[in-house]
Amino acid sequence: MSKTRKLYVKSFGCQMNVYDSHRMADAMAREGYVETDRPDEADVLVLNTCHIRETAAEKVYSELGRLRRLKEKAAGDGKRMLVAVTGCVAQAEGTEIVRRAPVVDLVIGPQSIHRLPELVARAQQGETVIDTEFPVEDKFEHLAPPSRVATRARGVTAFVTVQEGCDKFCTFCVVPYTRGVEVSRPVEKIVAEVALLAEAGVREVTLIGQNVNAYHGLKPDGTSSSLAGLLERLAELEGIARLRYTTSHPRDMREDLIAAHRDLPKLMPNLHLPVQSGSDRVLEAMNRRHGRDEYLSIIERVRVVRPDIAISSDFIVGFPGETEEDFSATLDLVERVGFAQAYTFKYSPRPGTPAATMSQVPDAVKAERLLRLQALIDAHQRKFNAAYLGDTLDVLFEKPGRIAGLLVGRSPYVQPVQVTAPADLIGTIAPVRIVEVGPSLSAELISPVRPHVLRPAVLAAAGGA
Ligand code: SAH
Ligand code: SF4
Ligand code: F3S
User: Which of 88, 93, 167 to mutate to test the pocket of ligand 3 (most atoms within 8 A of CB)?
Assistant: First the structure.
C-alpha cells in the first residue's frame, strides 16, 4: 500500500493568497495529497508569496533558507521533497528565484496555480518548472471547487475571490504587474461556490478582490452585474448570514453599493476603503485618481445611509516627496474620518514601479511619521471600541478562544469579541453584552441564549431540517 503523500502550504500577504492556497490544497487533494501543518513531514512544500513590500518578499527567502535545511535532511533519509514558490514573488521574480535559492523546484505565478498538480508531476521527473504565464484561459474555471470536507474543516467564515487583478497602476504598487488586468468571475459561479460553502457550515462570506468594488461579472442573461447586484444575489442564499467585501477603491465606490449598505440587512456595516494619504499632492503623485475631498465625500454619503458603519483604511507614509505638510494633511484626514481601524505602512520602493525612481524620503523620517500616524489611529480605534461598552451586539462565534471555555467571534463591525460560551455555539450568531473594551472586546451571553442562526448540524440534532 502506498504511503499518503503530504502537502504543506504557507500563505503570505493578502487574503487572495489564502484563498488561492485553499484552492491549491483542494486541487492536490484530488491527487491524493493530504494537507499537513508540519513542513518536515511534507512531500510537497508550497510558499504562496507576497511581493507588495520589500519586507514581504525577503520573508520568502528566509523561509526558503529553513526549507533548504529540511530538504537536505529529508534527502539524507532517502526522501525527496519538492519546494514550490507560488504567488506574487513567483510572478515578479521568475527564474531569479531559482538562481538565488536553488532549493526551489517550481516557480508558479498566481495565474497558473490551477496547474499545480500537473507541474508537480513534471518536477517529480527532475525538471525545474517555471510557469509565470498570464492565462490563456480563466484560472477559476480550472481551480478545484471547494470540497465539503475541506471547507467544513476551515470553519464558519470564508473568503471568496470574485475579482482579480488591477488596471489602476498606482505608482507605488506591484499588483498590476503580479496579478495582471482586472478580471471578474461570472455571478452564477460565485453563487454556486458560496452555496457549497453554506452547505459546509460557512455563515459569513467575505468577497475579495484587489479592487472588489470594480466587480462587473457576467449574469446568465449576458449583461453584467455590479458588486451591489452580486451581494443582493448572494443575500438570497439562506445559510449565509453575513456578507462583507474587501478591498475597495474610492474611484469605484458607486451609489448602488452605498445604497446596499442601507437595503441589505446581511451586508455587514464595515467598509475597508484605502486612502493612502490625506494630501492631494501626494495622491496625485501616487496616481490614485481622486482627491481628499472626494474621499471625505464618499465617507459622508456612506454614513448617511449607515451612520454606525466601521470605516477602515490603508496608509502609506514617506511616499517619495512627502513633506511634513503633506503628512499633516494625512493626520488631519484621520481626525476627520475617525477610522475604526487602519493599516499603516512605510513606503517601500518596488523594482519596476514609477515611484521607485522618484526622490526618496529618508528612512528615519518615514519611521517617525509611522509612529505618529499609528498612535493617532490607535487612539481612534480605542475610541471606536469604547463606544460599545455596555451595548448589545450580535456575535458570530468562530472558534474556541485561547482559554478553555472562551469562544472568539466577531461583531458586525469586525471587532474580535471574546465570550464565555458553550462550544456548540460555534457557527451561530447570538447577542452578547459588551463588558470590557480594548483592542478586542469581552462580552457575556445574554441569557437565555437564542442564537439567530442555527447550524445545519444543530438543526439536525434538534430533529429539524
Ligand atoms: N488594492 C488596494 C490595496 C492593495 S495592496 C488599494 O487599491 O488600496 C495593500 C496595501 O499595501 C495598499 O493599500 C498600500 O497601503 C500598501 N502598499 C502597496 N504598495 C506599497 C509599497 N510599495 N510600499 C508600502 N506600502 C504599500
Ligand atoms: Fe495597487 Fe493601486 Fe491597484 Fe490597489 S488600486 S492594487 S494600490 S495599483
Ligand atoms: Fe501581496 Fe500579491 Fe496580495 S503582492 S498583497 S500577495 S496581490
Answer: 88
